[in-house]
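We modelled each protein-ligand pair independently. The example shown here corresponds to the zinc ion entry; the chain sequence is given first, followed by the ligand as SMILES.
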Amino acid sequence: MDRDEEVALLGRTDSSKLKSRVKLAATGCALGIFAVLATVWFLDLGGFFQFDAARWVEITEDPIVSPVDRRAPVNFLALGDWGRHGLYNQSLVASQMGKIGGALEINFVVSVGDNFYKNGLTGVDDIAFDESFSRIYTAPALQKPWHAVLGNHDYHGDVFSQLDPRLGLRDWRWHCVRDAQLIFDLSPSLFRGDVDSRVSTVELFFVDTVPFIDQYWAPNQKHDFDWRDILPRHRHLQQKLENLTSALNASTASWKIVVGHHTIRSYGAHGDSVELVRQLLPILEGNNVDVYVNGHDHCLEHVKRDDSPIHFITSGGGSKAWKGISPPQNSNGLQFYYDGQGFVSFSVAESWLQIVYYNIYGEAVHKVRLTK
Ligand SMILES: [Zn+2]
């Protein structure tokens, strides 16, 4: 059997036979190995070698394009303010997320907080976890990791329960953290194995923004907040900001996305979070962050002001919305505002990043396209 016949067989055999045949090929000369790999890649046997490059589609700057007809190496949905036992159209939003998530072949979902209304979870056994999460987001495309931050309503309950790994035993998708960094490779994995070859990444930095907000600490605050592990507040915030600064500074990511619950810039019901404008925004701007995504305001919103390079993305339409708010057209930097329910998608490649906003009908109502 010559090498060409071997390559042809590789295209027809199952994965167990494939492994042995790849080993056989590996005993050949270096040129032979390269030929086998290149041909397998060409034959789109991506599942075996996990060649993400097989999903790569060269794109152009054509602005007239369906939001779901392009494939990026990393795709995810971002959703906030949702857990209401399926009510307030939560289930309808979930259904549309399933359709769009399937079309985009998403890798994961980001929850930007206020995960369980109105008072978080009472404990790791709280039935609300099933009724507002597991039994709602049932679409096959949503059976992916969910990376969540905490919102102010989550702090009204037992915060530790949402952070508890035992929730992952009830539903493996659930990953909730106070502060964390996620790194996704945007380079073709054909070249993986050599750290130096990882030339391009998108990195997500999750920040628990709840402790920043002064009004939650006021003596006349009518809600209880679970501040365990947060005290003393000043030291906690200082450490959080130092950690974020060094993580962002050390990052060489092509795209840096920061995720938090509270707004930085918004024309919704809560408006700007002045504490974050003062303490968080300078760090983001000083470390080349591209996008800040949040919830808290129950709307879909895009703000890009001339005085900041950052795109502010609000995705707080997971359930209860329609506050009756319509900001003036001349609001500083306001690119888009939708008062109703919905969610956003992110598609990220080395040289471009696309954010699409969807309403409850699954219609794309706004698109942000960034290139580098
Ligand atoms: Zn909130």
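Confidence is low (pLDDT under 50) at residues 1-69.
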